[in-house]
Amino acid sequence: MATSRPIASDALALIEAYRAAGEISFQDVDLETARQNYEISCASNGMPRSEVADVRDVVIADRIPARLYRDRPAEIGPAILFIHGGGWVIGSLDTHDGLCRALTRKTGAMVIAVDYRRAPESRYPAAVDDCRAALEWVFAHAEDLHIDPQRIVLVGDSAGGQMATVLANEYALGGHRECPVAQVLLYPVTDLGMDSDSYRRVTTGFPLTDRSMRWFADQYAPEGVDRLQAGLSPLRHEVPECGVPAFVVTVDHDPLADEGIAYAAKLASAGTAVEHLHLAGYAHGLFTSAGKIPTGAAVLDRVAAFICAATGTHDLRARGRGRTPNRSTV
């Protein structure tokens, strides 16, 4: 059943429109339609594609498409490796393009967005392998990219948040010359056991429900794959002591809510510096709807401030590119 918890006023119109249209979600249509619908939704509701100084599509590590964003002169500075969401199945460079443009404008960091292989054409561990190779490439080419290898931040949205934190944990455990300076996890997947209270609570009424997540997982990690292994369910495994500092965002109308909350607590218990923001009244997809939901844009300012603090960069919101609304939920 749909949760009886209230919906935030600035998110209500989109949720009501979704319900009025018949609550047709990703798992209810064929794969190509699901991908097309997500592209259309993100283009309609996402952050505007603001102008930045330089945007280039490239191929990294000889095989992985990526998009580079830079909004400051090519002086040595920080970088963000951005891993998009979409359940490992439906996202793309375009679905999160406005978000990446906003991040480079607000932080001054170069953003490297990874177009990892998607399921079901390429199943686990293809996506995380591509993201790992991309991070290795960024460290190896830091000088050519004019970035500081000591100021690289991982940012991941949903399934991308899962892969970002898996990489952060791997690097924090050692064996690498460099390590990301911070990780930003936007309503991340952390437990494919899928047995939390929020899975039982968020079953109808929202674009992402328990059924949606089970469908996504079936595409990426089908029968025969151990879904509880560390690369898929980091919540169920030990995390590094004093690991990569984290900013974690969770939202209440989300089957992933409980596991995200628990993961933030797990990192903190291990001595990792964690800032956790939980938003009551909001649903999964807040950041790909931030063009229509002001709170999404406001929280992105919080994310940018965290990245600037982690990288020792001046907070560029003072450049007049958007003020944070005075909202009690943010």
Tell me what the structure shows:
There is one protein chain. By secondary structure, the chain is α/β, with parallel strands linked by helices. 35% of the residues lie in helices and 18% in strands. The protein is built from ten helices and eight strands.
Order of helices and strands: HHEEEHEHHEHEHHEHEH
The fraction of residues assigned to DSSP E strands is: 15-25%
Q: Strand arrangement, largest sheet? A: 1-2-4-3-5-6-7-8
Q: How far is it from the N-terminal to the C-terminal residue, by CA?
A: 28 Å
Largest sheet: 8 strands, mixed
Structural shape: globular
- Mean of the pLDDT scores? 94
Cα-atom Rg, whole angstroms?
18 Å
Annotation, overall tally of beta strands: 8
Contiguous runs where pLDDT drops below 50 for at least 5 residues: 317-330
SS summary, helix count: 10
- The helix content, as a percent range, equals 25-40%
Structural class given helices, strands, pairing?
Answer: alpha/beta
Compose a concise summary of this entry.
The protein has 330 residues and is of the alpha/beta class. The chain contains 10 helices and 8 strands.
